Amino acid sequence: MRPDAAPDAATIELDVESHRRELTGYCYRMLGSSFEAEDAVQETMVRAWRGIDSFEGRSALRSWLYRIATNVCLDMLRGPQRRARPMDLGPSSTADSYLAPGLPEATWIEPIPDGRVMPSDADPAELAVAKESIRLAFVAALQHLPARQRAVLILREVLRWQATEVAELLDTSVASVNSALQRARATLASGDLEAVDPGAMDADHQALLARYVDAFERYDINSLVTLLHEDATFSMPPFALWLQGPVEISKWYVGQGIACKDSRLVATAANGCAAFGSYKLSRPGLREPWALQVIEVSGGRITALHHFLDTKLFAAFGLPPRLEE
Predict the structure, then answer these.
(1) Cβ contacts of residue 263 below 8 Å, gap of 6+?
(2) Backbone φ and ψ of 183, nearest 5°
(3) By the 8 A CB rule, do 257 and 122 touch?
(4) How far apart are CA 288 and CA 231, in angstroms?
(5) Cα 255 to Cα 32: distance, rounded to the nearest angstrom
(6) Which contiguous run of DSSP H or E holds residue 180?
(7) Residues 109, 112, 115, CA angle at the centre, nearest 5°?
(8) Is 62 helix (H, G, I), strand (E, B) or coil?
(9) Which residue ranges make up each domain of the chain?
């Protein structure tokens, strides 16, 4: 296509579709919600189609789409609400603590399927960066930043845009972009975001996950907790309660969490980590969705168990609506 030629609607549609995965990843990091990210990308497509006459080919179509997506996200972030993980809201609890009513869905960082945001043709180094940048802890940390700082940090640090490109996208100066990036870095550093080296999905990693699945499905909690790091955390949105350490996690599973017994797991992937759809026995021969588990691993041990009880996630992850035996 000539630099001065405006693409037609068919070209816009094809190019938006070719950028859907990276745009979804960008919007997810901005918004912290897989469902809102999908809405934002869809709105980006609609605005692109409606604004085709204003696109004159002076900039790359990809940059134009990112400008639209950024404006969509900034519009969606005008309210005071920021999404978080349970551990971002208060100290850890004990396994016998009162389980208060769940908080609204908009409170929580939501998991997202790897297939919707991870690059399909990246080299191992790029893939590692992409995984790190969609970790639940990192996405939660981004929510502490003002919206424009958030956009600057994602574009500069994650997507590796030049400062001049970001300045053009945000209609500001390079000096302003660099200042915003410096402030964003300082905010993240003050949050003491833990450093995690998830490593490759090698044979040892796969064996650890296989032992976890076996222990969980047999509900052998003594075996399960031997797989945990001494500082492992357990969370269960929409509840604010979260636990730390194998002792409290073990007590939870055999206490208030005993309803997990006799569940079955179906593998998937979320936020650069192994994940499982957990199906609870509802009657003989039938198991129904219960929780989406996201399992974080580092150094040969499980460091975090996130159990998301929003069963709408099962369809988003392509998981079966039920398991029948």
Answers:
(1) 216, 217, 278, 279, 280, 281, 287, 290
(2) -65, -40
(3) no
(4) 31
(5) 31
(6) helix 174-190
(7) 165
(8) helix
(9) 203-324
Q: pLDDT digits over 57-68, tens only?
A: 555 888 989 999
What contacts 186, CB < 8 A, 6 or more positions away?
Answer: none
- Grouping H, G, I as helix, E, B as strand and the rest as coil, residue 232 is strand
**pLDDT tens column, 99-151:** 999 999 999 999 999 999 988 777 888 888 889 999 999 999 999 999 999 99
CATH class of 203-324: alpha beta
pLDDT tens per residue, range 222-234 = 999 999 999 999 9
Residue position matching structure tokens 């991870």: 118
Percent helix, strand, coil in the chain, to 5, is: 50, 20, 35
pTM higher than the cut 0.85? yes
Instruction: Name which of 142, 144, 121, 117 is nearest 130 in CA terms.
Output: 117
- The residue behind tokens 């660099």 is 178
3-state secondary structure of 172: coil
Encoded tokens for 101: 């009513």
> Do 257 and 305 touch, CB atoms closer than 8 A?
no
CA-to-CA distance for 99 and 95, rounded, in angstroms?
Answer: 9
Nearest to 291 by CA among 305, 274, 271, 307: 307
221, burial (CB in 10 Å: exposed 0-12, middle 13-18, buried 19+): buried
Q: Is 248 a residue whose pLDDT tops 60? A: yes
